[in-house]
Amino acid sequence: MKARFRVNETYNCRYTPGTSVADIYSDDLFNCQAKDPSLVEMSRRFLHLFMKAFNSIYMEKGRGWRRILESAIGTLFGMLSSLFLVGTMKLLQRLRRAITRSWDDWRLRAAVYKTRFRRVCIFVAYISFMGWLTVQYSKFIGLREFLIGSYIGERRL
Fold first, then answer.
1. Residues 6+ apart with CB under 8 A from 22
2. pLDDT in tens, 123-140
3. φ/ψ of residue 35, rounded to 5
4. If DSSP codes are grouped into helix, strand and coil, which group holds residue 24?
């Protein structure tokens, strides 16, 4: 059902704070405008609600100072716990950096040892290959028989 409204007329409506939309109802519950209230109006409303809440909670007969003291202690312990948490986090960050740094040092040392081990393995493989190649070459040219024959010949003398 589509409602018809006249220009420059005042209607009853429901306003939700924080929005720029007003819902118009015919039940005459609220009188409001569709625009947001000003900053001064919102500050005045907040101050009024805060003072009402403060008076109802903290200024009860005989319990006012106790509530204020509880609030102060709660605030103090809240700040101390947040400082403790921040300090603990800083300590854990430093510990993590130290562990990471030592891990990086260990990895660097491992890389150096790995390189040295590779070089030793390559050197041993080179010596083995050259020894095998020398033996094969000496077999090819008959150097072994020549050396053995000359050794035997020297023993006969």
1. 13, 14, 15, 16, 32, 33, 34
2. 999 999 999 998 888 888
3. -95, 155
4. strand
